[in-house]
């Protein structure tokens, strides 16, 4: 009798374990599905597309200098840099990997680099292309225009757009 009782208990425990396993599998699968839909739907922040009025970002930038600003929206962080040869560039400061803040490091590389400290992502200062680390795409560009009274942000380009 005692042996039958133990066998029934073991059998009931196995059923519970199977149910728990299925519940975990369904929960994890559902979470992955919801996460995939959120990413595909663009729910996570990325640099803003679209248009905004031209915005003054600096009166001037000398070679080697940079300035941070937001454009086109208040959450769209960006960095403008005057490279040592005088070329003016600007990129989103939102990393294309997991949206950490990208920092300008004038002391790295031959003409400086844009570094994401979260996972050591590195972007080329002249093109915004990924040169190291996990970011999957180049940094989106912010288009600049030099006018008599300063440097203006006038538009954005999506990652990889020429
Ligand atoms: S968030 Fe920038 S490298 Fe991961």
From TrEMBL:
A single GO molecular function term of this UniProt record: metal ion binding
Residue ranges annotated for the Rieske domain, each copy included: 53-153
Membrane among keywords: yes
GO CC field: membrane
Keywords: 2Fe-2S, Disulfide bond, Iron, Iron-sulfur, Membrane, Metal-binding, Transmembrane, Transmembrane helix
InterPro entries: Rieske_2Fe-2S, Rieske_2Fe-2S_sf, Rieske_Fe-S_prot, Rieske_Fe-S_prot_C
Segments passing through the bilayer: 21-44
PROSITE patterns registered for this protein in UniProt: RIESKE
A Pfam entry, by short name: Rieske
Cofactor(s), names only, from the UniProt record: [2Fe-2S] cluster
Described purpose of this protein according to its UniProt entry: Iron-sulfur subunit of the cytochrome bc1 complex, an essential component of the respiratory electron transport chain required for ATP synthesis. The bc1 complex catalyzes the oxidation of menaquinol and the reduction of cytochrome c in the respiratory chain. The bc1 complex operates through a Q-cycle mechanism that couples electron transfer to generation of the proton gradient that drives ATP synthesis.
Protein name, per record: Cytochrome bc1 complex Rieske iron-sulfur subunit
Organism encoding this protein: Allocatelliglobosispora scoriae
Source species taxonomy: Bacteria, Bacillati, Actinomycetota, Actinomycetes, Micromonosporales
